[in-house]
Amino acid sequence: MCEANAYYIEDGDEELIMEAVDTVTPEPEGILLTSIFGDQKLVKASIHSLSLVDHKVYLQKNG
Predict the structure, then answer these.
(1) How far apart are alpha carbons 3 and 50 in whole angstroms?
(2) Among candidates 62, 58, 28, 33, which has minimal Cα distance to 45?
(3) Could you please report the per-residue DSSP string of 3-16?
(4) What's the pLDDT tens digit per position in 7-55?
(5) 21 CA to centre of own chain
(6) Is the pTM of this model over 0.90?
(7) How many domains does the chain have?
(8) Cα 2 from Cα 54, distance rounded (Å)
(9) According to the lineage, what is the superkingdom (predicted)?
(10) Nearest 5°: CA angle at 19, between 53 and 37?
(11) What does the alpha-carbon distance between residue 54 and residue 45 come to, in Å, rounded to a whole number?
């Protein structure tokens, strides 16, 4: 499978937020992550970067 995992990144350190992320949707309050299992998590963050080869979404905390 080719789903990505979402991480907070800070000072080069990764903190796992969600595994098997299917969609990443910008919302007024932050980023909505939805997994292949239908789980959803709204995080107050912005996209830092994407590593498509490694299937990783890096988010930076807001506030």
Answers:
(1) 13
(2) 62
(3) -EEEEEEETTEEEE
(4) 999 998 999 999 999 999 999 999 999 999 999 999 999 999 999 999 9
(5) 7
(6) yes
(7) 1
(8) 9
(9) Bacteria
(10) 115
(11) 21
Kindly give the pairing relationship between strand 45-51 and strand 56-61: antiparallel
User: For residues 23-37, b (16+ Cβ closer than 10 Å) or e, as one string?
Assistant: ebeeeeebbebbbee
CA quadruple 24, 13, 18, 56: dihedral, nearest 10:
50
Which structural domain range is residue 47 located in?
A: 4-61
* Tokens 């995080």, residue located: 43
pLDDT at 1: 63
3, 22 Cβ separation under 8 angstroms: yes
